Amino acid sequence: MSVISSLRRPCAAAAFALAVIGSSVAGASAHATPAPEDGPVAGAPMPTADGEFSYLATHDVTEQAASLAVPDAVASLPVPQEYRPANLALAAQFDMALAAALKSPGGCVQVVVDPQARDGSLFNYGFFPVAGEHCS
């Protein structure tokens, strides 16, 4: 999967991405340590700090996100030019988390939202691969 590849179902993928981002429940930190050079590795869900929210997708939803090319949909969302690099970085982070989660049998993706961004953004989002034993 690549954020550069063409969209197969852009409306469905964009709707799914927005549903995932909007379906947060209390729970993991949007500020993670850098991933190893070869990309992130699925593990335990990220813990959350006070005020952060987490959504742990099921394995089926994670597979559906991959089949809908959600990272491509995120990358193609219309944003002002000054936000384009951040939008592409968000899509790439989601793409890497999906790929790593699907390498783990039963793996899933965790979305973490920090609604009190400290860098001037409205929100900080993080996508993390979670190992299958922690997913449903």
Overall pLDDT score:
77
Overall number of structural domains:
1
Q: From the alpha carbons, calculate the radius of gyration and give it in angstroms.
A: 14 Å
Query: What is the string of helix and strand elements?
Result: HEEHHHEE
> Which stretches of 5+ consecutive residues score pLDDT under 50?
1-35
Kindly name the structural category: alpha+beta
Largest sheet: 4 strands, antiparallel
> What's the number of extended β-strand segments?
4
Order of strands, main sheet, comes to 1-2-3-4
What is the straight-line distance between the termini? 23 Å
Shape: globular
Percentage of residues assigned to helices:
25-40%
Strand content: 5-15%
Query: Total helix count?
Result: 4
Description of the molecule:
Keywords: Signal. With 136 residues, the chain is of the alpha+beta class. It has one domain. The chain has helices at residues 10-22, 59-67, 70-76, 84-103, and strands at residues 25-26, 53-56, 108-114, 124-130. Strands 1-2-3-4 form a four-stranded antiparallel sheet. Helix 1 packs across helix 3 (70-76), helix 2 packs across helix 4 (84-103) and helix 3 packs antiparallel against helix 4 (84-103). Mean pLDDT is 77; it is low at 1-35.
